[in-house]
Amino acid sequence: MITMRITRRQLRYLIKEMAAKQPSELSDSFHWEVIKWSARASDEEEWDGWDGEQIVNNIFVAGYVHTEGSGEPSRAASILIKQKPESDCKHWEVKSASVGVHSDVSSDDLVDLGPMMYDIAMELAGDDGMISDSGGTSEAAQGVWNFYLLNRSGVDVELYDMDPGLCGRGDISGFTFPRDDYKFKVYRKRAGSPSIIKKLESLGKIRF
Description:
Layout: H1 8-17, E1 30-40, E2 55-65, E3 74-83, E4 92-99, H2 114-125, E5 130-131, H3 139-152, E6 157-161, E7 185-189, H4 196-202, E8 206-207
Parallel strand pairs: 1-8, 4-5
Antiparallel strand pairs: 1-2, 2-3, 3-4, 6-7
């Protein structure tokens, strides 16, 4: 039996060639916008029982498409991540993410856009890292987390184990492995890896 070994350079190339939109492939009608804010937990729509006077940090990343004849661009993709900095779980949780679900926009920009959206959010989460939603994760989102877990760990993403019981994970007996491995991982952008935000900025495709 012959065993083939793939070098890190080859793996980077394979990832680039996989179904994931590259910044240079975005059309002139598309751009990302990033909004950051902090609020008291009691003012948040979803604060998961967190003390109402404690602070919740928010980052909202949205992709917009400007269609001919329309006055305002239409929001076609978005991801919301939240952090409870004063809790025992300081990681950024993905609370919602969608591409094209709540939009009637039809654009080639939406094809394979999800990984780019998650990459932007992960870079913004910084050293605190990003984790899946403790309240539940859709099948589509599970696919994204597992793609990072199986294909990009050690290349441009670093993964760290999270102890059971933290961040709303509860009793480990309620999970099925390896299916639920991603729920106990903290995902961080690998230090020194290319910045997707800087690339988008150089193309004029992201606004803060």
